[in-house]
Automatic annotation (TrEMBL):
It catalyses: (6R)-NADPHX = (6S)-NADPHX; (6S)-NADHX + ADP = AMP + phosphate + NADH + H(+); (6R)-NADHX = (6S)-NADHX; (6S)-NADPHX + ADP = AMP + phosphate + NADPH + H(+). Keywords: ATP-binding, Isomerase, Lyase, Metal-binding, Multifunctional enzyme, NAD, NADP, Nucleotide-binding, Potassium. It comes from Pradoshia eiseniae. This is Bifunctional NAD(P)H-hydrate repair enzyme. Homotetramer.
């Protein structure tokens, strides 16, 4: 599995909503139609930036604010005025020329009316540099003129802060030709997808979200511990194994028997009442030693689906340790068309197929970037650079839930909404961790499906790696450690 090694630091504890550029433009349009002008929104942005950034600044510092020609530059103009009003040594600079945006020009007029000056070149050393060159309006290429500016930025030892987006990074996309590396980025209204994509996310530094007074309407947001607690099913009294459902796991082959053990352990520790494993006889013989709690049916027997143990299943997971072939495809088609319980498809069960529309119970796909590339016809780099949009588009067009794994796993629902998970570390970039996640999903779905369950599974799966790293080197973690740590994690978080 590909995992990218950078960490997202989110300042404060507030919810992080994620807005595509077109959603921000729609928010602006709605505000303008109702009489809240962009001029006022820019004023609000400047105040919110001042309030957030002033916690990182002090009045003796020489602060250079680099402003571009668009509205990101306009935010820089308002911020400069407020810093000067409050006695900071702020210097407003237009290294790429004066503003072309009408609203930014109006703010510059007011700035001048206040008696403040600006320049067009950076000079000497600054203690702080603020990047207000480009925001959500940036489109590649990174021009020659910008390269000069970037060289200055790179050579400076100043504290580096970006307004909304580090310049050179696009709002929606992960690709980066060149960009301004920030120590902190203050995102207006909400984060943009590129903060969670690779390599763009590496340029943001610590993320801060600033409120500019617009209503929150994002389709995507970061899933948090508070969300897990708020959606975790209440403990049940007077239970027996039937209370927690029967899960069917179709997994494991002679070449990959361990996948069945990992997924099976995931399902059982995630709380399924009864687990039935449908696998090859030799695989069952080895699995039973590690997982005596499960029951086994022989998938090589043509009558296996008539086995009474699978007459009342609550959910099925198919794919870990399996290779795609016609018989597997036919089996999946049967489950998709005939069953009325959640179907979880992973690894060998993922293919370029269509899914029945209007199916009562959910279908959950758990591709890693390589599998997503295979089922969409894209390259792995294309998947990673655009994973939120891609997962969302696929979920909508195929009426499925997509759990697109890897750094910042995306959970996308058929209605176009979704979550991004930020837990985990490099301990999860090992073979078998995806099989474990599939098992956890099966274990949870067998007890009663709810959409939040997929996000909770991913969140906690990532948290096990964080808990492991508290005492041990993440590189030494094994997939089988996940479900050893799981019980301790649940107890620590007081989840039942
Ligand atoms: N709702 C919000 O979040 C608000 C955001 N505002 C700010 O407005 C910004 C967006 O403003 P704009 O739409 O003006 O976009 P930008 O400020 O990112 O700049 C766009 C300008 O840069 C030019 N440009 C784009 N790519 C270029 C390239 N490669 N080389 C040279 N020139 C290039 C464009 O032609 C355009 O003139 C946001 O990022 C944010 O900072 C606020 O001011 C208003 C409210
Ligand atoms: K910027």
């Amino acid at each position: 599995m590909i995992v990218f090694l950078y960490t997202i630091f989110i300042g404060g504890l507030m919810n992080v909503n994620i807005y595509f550029a077109e959603e921000i433009r729609e928010c602006d349009r709605l505000a303008e139609d109702s009489g809240l002008s962009i001029f006022s929104l820019m004023e609000n942005s400047g105040h919110a930036l001042f309030e957030g950034m002033s916690k990182l600044l002090h009045k003796k510092q020489r602060i250079g604010i680099l402003a571009g020609g668009g509205n990101n530059g306009g935010d820089g103009i308002v911020l400069s005025r407020l810093l000067l009003n409050h006695g900071y040594k702020a210097e407003l600079i237009f290294p790429l020329g004066l503003p072309s945006s009408r609203v930014a020009q109006d703010h510059l007029d007011y700035y001048k009316t206040c008696g403040y000056r600006y320049s067009t070149e950076m000079e000497g050393e600054y203690d702080v540099l603020i990047d207000g060159l480009f925001g959500i309006g940036f489109r590649p290429p990174f021009t020659k003129q910008m390269i000069g500016c970037l060289d200055f930025w790179k050579k400076s030892n100043a504290l580096k802060i970006a307004i909304d987006i580090p310049s050179g990074v696009e709002a929606n996309h992960g690709r980066v030709e060149a960009a301004f590396q920030a120590d902190h980025t203050f995102c207006l209204h909400g984060a943009k997808p590129s903060a969670f994509l690779y390599p763009s996310g590496t340029y943001y530094g610590e993320l801060h979200i600033v409120d500019i007074g617009l209503p929150q309407r994002a389709r995507f947001r970061v899933w948090t511990e508070e969300d897990v607690r708020g959606t975790w099913p209440a403990a049940k009294d007077y239970t027996h194994k039937g209370t927690f459902g029967t899960g069917l796991l179709i997994a494991g082959s002679r070449q990959m028997p361990g996948c069945a053990i990992l997924a099976g352990t995931g399902a059982m520790r995630a709380g399924v009442g009864k687990l039935v494993m449908a696998t090859e006889k030799t695989v069952a013989d080895s699995c039973v030693i590690s997982l005596p709690e499960a029951t086994y049916v022989d998938r090589e027997d043509s009558q296996w689906r008539k086995d009474p143990s699978i007459s009342k299943i609550a959910a099925v997971a198919i794919g870990p340790g399996l290779k795609p072939d016609d018989s597997l495809e036919n089996l999946i088609t049967d489950f998709l068309e005939e069953s009325e319980f959640p179907v979880i498809l992973d690894a060998g069960a993922l293919s370029e197929r269509s899914y029945p529309k209007g199916r009562k119970s959910p279908v959950i796909l758990t591709p890693h970037p390589g599998e997503m590339a295979r089922i969409t016809g894209k390259t792995v780099a294309e998947v990673n650079e655009n994973r939120i949009q891609l997962a969302s588009d696929y979920a909508i067009s195929h009426h499925v839930t997509v759990v697109l794994k890897g750094m910042n796993t995306v959970i996308a629902f058929p209605d176009g909404t979704g979550f991004v998970n930020v837990t985990g570390n490099r301990g999860l970039s090992k073979g078998g961790t995806g099989d474990t996640l599939t098992g956890i999903l099966l274990g949870m779905a067998s007890q009663g499906y709810q959409p939040s369950m997929a996000a909770n599974a991913v969140y906690l799966h990532g948290k096990t790696a964080e808990l492991y790293a508290e005492e041990k080197a993440p590189s030494s973690m094994l997939a089988s450690d996940i479900m050893q740590i799981w019980p301790v994690l649940l107890r620590k978080m007081e989840l039942s």
